[in-house]
Amino acid sequence: MTTIKRKALSLQEKIEILKVFDTKSQTTNQTQLAAELNLPVSTLRTIIKKRGEIKEKYKLGSAQRKKHKVGKFDKLEKVLVEWIHQTRALKLPINGPIICEKARIIANGLKITDFNASSGWIDRFKNRNGIVYRQNKNGESPEAQQTVDTWMSTLPEMVQNYEPRDIFNADEFGLFFKLMPDKFHDFEGDTCHDGRASRERLTVLACANCDGSEKLRLLVIGKAKKPPSLNNVRSLPVTYDAQSRAWMTDVRFNYWLKALDDQVQTKNRQIILFIDNCPAHPKSIELKNIKLVHIPPNATSQLQPMNLGIIKVLKQGYRTRLIHRYLQESEEPASERPFTVHDAILNLAASWEAVKPETIQKCFATAGLSNNVVDEVEEEPEILHAFPGYSSIDDNVAPYEIQSIEHLIENFKTKNEDLSDDDQDEDVSTPVLSSAQALSAINYLRRYVSSLDHSEDALQKLNCVENFVIARPTKSISQTKISDYFNTCMYLPKVKYST
């Protein structure tokens, strides 16, 4: 019997072997297949056994690597990788000398005395973690393109067992929620770590599925547990939570993720959820009905549907509503009043509802998650042309805390969660309107809507709202909900405040 010589195989070669195995496993046993591939049977069995681990490493873009050893300074490198992910999120430059300097600081913080940030170490570190920072003339690194190509080649297998309605993507964004168009130049380039901008920021988590049939309720994170403007509010069209600096944190994201897992479990569904490598996102978490997949960290701008236009359209809708408010107050100074967290929440919900399924489908297709061909949709609202840069003013605002090296080291040791406070900033309470005032407002709206073409549906919805208001004095809150008056899927869930 001829002995087959063992040889080191790259990740690319192992992936190709797995593809052959998947194709022939029903007709060919492992011994025969190993002979066809000129491999020892034990090598083939090991590759099959470690399928999941191989694919995870392959997705990181280091497809030609043959050995995957943990570095001598594993703890140091874990902290350093977290710092690099943060820096990339802010689109700040990274190079070898910067990485070496940060590595020395981390080594000192972890009391590692025998570390030397040599050129050999940094080459091995980059190779182990798929770190690239060389750029071509277009600002994209060739290695990043390799990551995209590698990822695209594995996507079909990842989603082959899921219907489009069960393929989801979630992502966060920062929002200067009360920034009016006459003031936005004051905030250009602000990444919002502190100062005035941080006091006017919300973090928003958006999640939708591939065919656009499900836009999950937005998660909005503010600074106050219960802002004054929500004091008299019993229902919100979003989920509201609070953190002392309005950041997304790992605790809050995990809570949201577990709640989603419970929700899909009750419907007996299995979904796949794609997320980026935000520090607040878990590297591992036990879920029953959700397969969690991390998008490669150096290519999210090309691979994440939310980044490919969904969030952009949502923010354009939000800014358009603020412009209309600004114009109204310019024409009618008497109508001017402070813009509150409650106003922002209502604007966000309306803007999210207005994002078309076709827009979502197109962005998922661009990310390689769908084969649907969708025409160009959702052009920028014309009114935004008068304020260039306004809708994208907060594109670089990080939705999570940008931590110093010292904080990253401390978090690595303790993993402590900051507590929320009751910072209310300039938010003001919303006065409770009487039924008479509400009915009067509805009548004003009805008169205006009646003057417009094709307004039948809007008038019908106003009638539903009027019926709801009229019924309130005679029925208890628990007996009557506004959704009872709509034949459509309008949904106003009760708000749950964080404690």
TrEMBL record:
Location of the protein in the cell: Nucleus
Superkingdom, taxonomy of origin: Eukaryota
Annotated signal sequence range: none
Domain HTH CENPB-type span(s) in chain numbering: 64-135
Gene Ontology molecular function terms on file: DNA binding
Keywords: DNA-binding
Pfam family, one: HTH_Tnp_Tc5
GO cellular component, one term: nucleus
PANTHER family according to UniProt: PROTEIN PDC2, TRANSPOSON
Protein name: HTH CENPB-type domain-containing protein
Record organism: Leptosia nina
Source lineage: Eukaryota, Metazoa, Ecdysozoa, Arthropoda, Hexapoda
